[in-house]
Amino acid sequence: MIDRVKAIIHLDNLIHNFNLLKAVYQNKRVMAVVKADAYGHGSVEVAKHLETHGCDFFAVTDLLEGIELRQAGIQSDILLFGKTSPQNIDKIKHYHLTQTIDSLEYAQSLNSYGIRIQTHIVIDTGMSRFGIYCQHQEDIKETAEEVEKMMALLHLNHQGIYTHFAAADEEKEAFTKHQYDVFCQLIQAIEFKGLDLGIKHCSNSAAILKYRDRHMDMVRTGIAMYGYPPIKTKLNFLPVMDVFARVISLRKIRPGDGISYGITHIAKKDMRLASIAIGYADGYNRLLSNQDYFFYKGKKLKVMGRVCMGVTMVDVSHIDIQVGDFVEVFGQNKPLDQMATQLNTITYELLTNMSKKRVIFEYSK
Ligand SMILES: Cc1ncc(COP(=O)(O)O)c(C=O)c1O
């Protein structure tokens, strides 16, 4: 049976969320983060739809993701968060991509090819992941000098500078404030020398919603745009992805019968079970065995036994359901953030886990 699992991507909800964030940011520039295939939603479709609705800056992880968008016809700026091997600088140029530079050494190495490309400088103010190390006041002078040297390189066309908050979605306000303050002081120190830093940006989804006085010249949003703000908000974000899986088999079982691998559940009474065509290979986490439910016509269908590679059994004793029907795995009626909490993970991971090879994606406007 084809269409075992389908993901419906609500592009209207995506625009609704994007516009909510834009309004928070007083309709200024919002960069859409569409890395990792737009958090599993399909970067080409997502970026195309956003571009026709006014988004003019995208961010992806690497060259391959950037090229995919250009080949699909995306015209707007595309920032590569990750590094590109200097030997591939001709591709950055050819596809008009914007390269993040994280050190003077890397900048010099790109510059040595004599090919003019657009760049943003990244500063590490506290994430300890990427960027020029500047986590303390005492690092500012040296970092400012490094940035100055980077900006003086002949073939790098400096367009912006950014940092990334490590804990804007947590109750670590003092830490985030420190990151912001160091970044601002660095900017001041560089601008004091008369240099134009271009687009300055620092806020991710959590910071856009929580720290409204720190938005700078552009904000970068990912997860909130896909419907899952990482902090509590009164704004009405709508899930963009709904996942449905098909009933492929129905059976009656008797008291004492075991269910699924390991027989971790034994029926206590007569039951009707449905086998649903989704499992861990599709992106439905095995740790949800015996823990979760699917949703069908207003009713919860409890997951019974272990999640298999491509099948999960649920209790349908109380409902009328047929082979071929679809049940909701997560989406409008079954909150993904609850599943994430249950799994001690984040919505980002669950969204990006949906397998592009096994799940059919449909786009609805
Ligand atoms: C540098 C950078 N900016 C912005 C974002 C978007 O973050 P969020 O999805 O929390 O809005 C990310 C995502 O991880 C990122 O790596």
Overview of the molecule:
This protein has 11 helices and 19 strands. With 365 residues, the chain is α/β, with parallel strands linked by helices. It folds into 2 domains: 11-221, Alanine racemase (TIM Barrel, Alpha-Beta Barrel); 241-364, Lyase, Ornithine Decarboxylase, Chain A, domain 1. The strands form 4 sheets. Strands 2, 3, 4, 5, 6, 7, 8, 9 and 10 form a 9-stranded parallel beta sheet that branches. Strands 1, 11, 14, 17, 18 and 19 form a 6-stranded mixed beta sheet that branches. β8 (156-163), α8 and β9 form a beta-alpha-beta unit. α7 crosses α8. The mean pLDDT is 97. Pyridoxal-5'-phosphate is lined by residues 33, 81, 164, 204-206, 220-224, 230.
Précis, in short:
This protein has 2 domains: 11-221, TIM Barrel (Alpha-Beta Barrel), CATH 3.20.20; 241-364, Lyase, Ornithine Decarboxylase, Chain A, domain 1 (Beta Barrel). It has 11 helices and 19 strands. The protein has helices at residues 11-24, 35-39, 43-52, 63-71, 89-94, 104-111, 140-151, 173-191, 205-210, 336-342, 347-352; strands at 5-10, 30-33, 57-60, 77-80, 98-101, 117-124, 132-133, 156-163, 199-201, 219-221, 241-253, 258-259, 265-266, 271-276, 293-296, 299-302, 312-315, 326-330, 359-364.
Q: Indicate the percent of residues in helices.
A: 25-40%
Number of strands: 19
User: At the first level of CATH, what is the class of the largest domain?
Assistant: Alpha Beta
Report the sheet-strand fraction: 25-35%
How many strands, which pairing sense, and closed or not: the largest β-sheet? Answer: 9 strands, parallel
Helix segment count?
Answer: 11
**Ligand set:** pyridoxal-5'-phosphate
What is the assigned CATH homologous superfamily of the largest domain?
A: Alanine racemase
Distance between the termini: 27 Å
- Oligomeric state: single chain
Unreliable stretches (pLDDT < 50, length at least 5) are: none
Question: How many domains?
Answer: 2
- Mean pLDDT across residues: 97
- In the CATH hierarchy, the third-tier topology of the largest domain is known as TIM Barrel
Gross morphology is elongated
What order do the helices and strands follow? Answer: EHEHHEHEHEHEEHEHEHEEEEEEEEEHHE
Q: What is the radius of gyration?
A: 24 Å
CATH architecture of the largest domain: Alpha-Beta Barrel
Structural class: alpha/beta
